[in-house]
Amino acid sequence: MSSPLERVSRLGQSVWIDWLSRDLLSSGGLKRLIAEHAVTGVTTNPTILERAIAAGHGYDRQIADLLAFDLSPREIATELARTDVSEAALQLLPLWQASGGRDGYVSWEVDPAPAWNAGATLAAVRELRELVQLPNLLVKIPATEPGLRALEDATAAGYSINVTLIFSLERYAAVVESYLRGLRRAADAGLDLPSIHSVASFFISRFDSAADALLERERSPFARALRGRLGIASAKLAYRHFQACFSGARWQALRAQGASPQRPLRASISTKHPAYRDVRYVEELIGLQTVTTLPQATLEAFEEHGLVAETLARDVERAALILDDLALAGLDLKRLTDELERDGIAQFARSRDALEARIGAAHEHAKAA
Fold first, then answer.
1. Radius of gyration of the chain (CA)
2. Handedness of CA 7, 8, 12, 16 (dihedral sign)
3. Hey, which bits of the chain come out as E strands?
């Protein structure tokens, strides 16, 4: 009997994991996830790497070797990540080949420092592509306004991009438009469109948590009844926009040249509120031509008791009414999403600093030994 995640995969949703470690790669853990849980991709970031380093001794030898070259903590962090990403990409390469480039990706995040500078973000994309010259690398960039320009330019240059930190429907629409413009420029330049892929990462539970905190301050039962509704409703409306944009004459002209749609990716899907079902953000957002990214605990929970049905395209009109109700309840979505974007970039920076601090501490310990 097939597992719940295998059934999700058969419904057209790709299953990626939101964790990576040296132990996962060296123990055969990633290969088991591919074989037994329908996993077809991996995402990583400085937080994931810092936790992996703290969890054991899998990185000790490489850190010691790199310290001998008197590299900075940032340079060491980059090399540690490059090693993990390269090995994961090699293990996923057969999936990438078998799927025609649809799956089998490792998503590696750029340094958050240039998030507000389009040119610097594009340069960071190029740098990571030079470090890992494998076709199944997705470079992850934030969906700031400068990030939109970087997305278009990167796509036009032939790079495959994961656009992250998307919260609002307006920003999602702008991400899609940037991708389509980049594809058109790539086609006009004679680039190979089948080699360009992209996903758009819409954050779900983080969106709900921020909205719930505001709604809980309200005394109105109407406002409180809307808690836990924003993330799923927004994802359903974004999917409707995806279906509209990746059809019709404009898209078909690109599709005829081998272009691939920019698939919606569900990020931040671990349940934060104890009253919510632990797999709700998986169960309620299953749909064709999409990606879900699972932390380990959520993957295990879904395999144990997840319900599988194509849910993403259901109740879309109701989702639109929920957003209307949230506005009536006084929720300022523009302000909320702007704050979440700024906080998300700041959190990326804090994660990078924590990673470098851990490596710096190892450096000091080595010098004192």
1. 20
2. negative
3. 13-17, 39-44, 105-109, 137-142, 161-166, 198-203, 263-267, 290-294
Catalytic site residues? 140
Helical pair 230-245 and 248-255, crossing angle rounded to 10 deg: 70
49 C-beta neighbours (distance < 10 Å), count: 26
Give phi and psi for 277, each to the nearest 5.
Answer: -60, 135
Q: What angle do CA 164, 265, 74 make, to 5 degrees?
A: 35
- Give CB contacts under 8 A, 24+ apart, made by 133-136: 134/86, 134/89, 134/90, 134/93, 135/93, 135/96, 135/101, 135/195, 136/89, 136/92, 136/93, 136/96, 136/101, 136/104, 136/105, 136/106
DSSP states of 135-164: TTEEEEEE-SHHHHHHHHHHHHTT--EEEE
Quote the tokens at residue 297.
């605990």
Residue type, 358: R
How many other β-carbons are positioned within 10 Å of the β-carbon of residue 57? 10
Rounded CA gap, 128 and 110, in Å? 7
Residue 91 vs residues 10, 51, 86, 133: alpha-carbon distances, Å: 22, 22, 9, 14
* 304-352 pLDDT tens trace: 999 999 999 999 999 999 999 999 999 999 999 999 999 999 999 999 9
**Type of residue found at 146:** P
With tokens 């649809």, the residue in question is: 102
CB count in 10 Å sphere of residue 335:
10
Answer whether residue 233 shows pLDDT above 90.
yes
Question: Could you give the 3-state DSSP secondary structure of residue 222?
Answer: helix
Alpha-carbon distance 50 to 348, whole Å?
Answer: 12
Q: pTM value?
A: 0.95
Query: What does the DSSP assignment read for 277-318?
Result: -TTHHHHTT--TTEEEEE-HHHHHHHHHH------TTTTHHH
Strand partners, 166: 202
For 136, counting Cβ atoms within 10 Å of its Cβ (0-12 exposed, 13-18 middle, 19+ buried), the class is buried
CB atoms within 10 A of CB 328: 12
